[in-house]
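User: Study the chain.
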Amino acid sequence: MGAHERAVLIDLDGTLVDSAPDIVEAANRMLGALGAAPLPSKTISGFIGNGVPTLVRRVLAACSLAPAVDEERAQGLFHRHYEDTNGRFGNVFPGVVEGLDALRRAGYRLGCVTNKPEKATNFLLAISGLAPYLETVVAGDTIAYMKPYAEPLLHACREMGLDPALGVLVGDSAVDVAAALAAQMPVYIVRYGYPGPGGHAAVGMRGAVFIDSLAEMPALLSARAKLGAVSEVRYSSE
């Protein structure tokens, strides 16, 4: 199959955009509203990747506020503050724009699959200038499932009219690895993101190819396609 028939699905937080500063600020403002002391940036960054409900739950637990504080109230406070901090403190990671440009020139179709809520996702993609690169966006509340389930990746492929077998995922965490494996897609993990508990050495990262920049993807995918073509020729000749 040609490159124009393939999709590169890409995570948002920790992969395209260094949004941790935005999220940390919102989480600590939430804690301030609840009368608690702020948490270190590194602690909150380690909670990113599983969606807002899980993030808030982990933050409350880290401050010993659970179960005394109602989670729904805390989530409401987080969302309110995040509307103000989203896109204000973070930046697009180095190599992202170069990688997206190169992938698009090579004919790859691009989509974003994230656990961030849709409203916040669309705003961040717009303010960061990345929205025009993406043919489809599947956010944490677009469908009933989030990563690590396969459904968001499969939904993105359906939206693009592509066989999921022609897709790959680029992410930064074990959540991305699990989702890609569930969808039977190859998965590439950036080393600079928010890998979650255990870091990049975690058992949940097994099966991933690690990269330093999104700009590496065109060459890696080209090499993979050539290897696949050689394998098909060998198989058919046996």
Notes: The chain has two domains: 3-16+93-236, 20-85. The first strand starts at residue 7 and ends at 10.
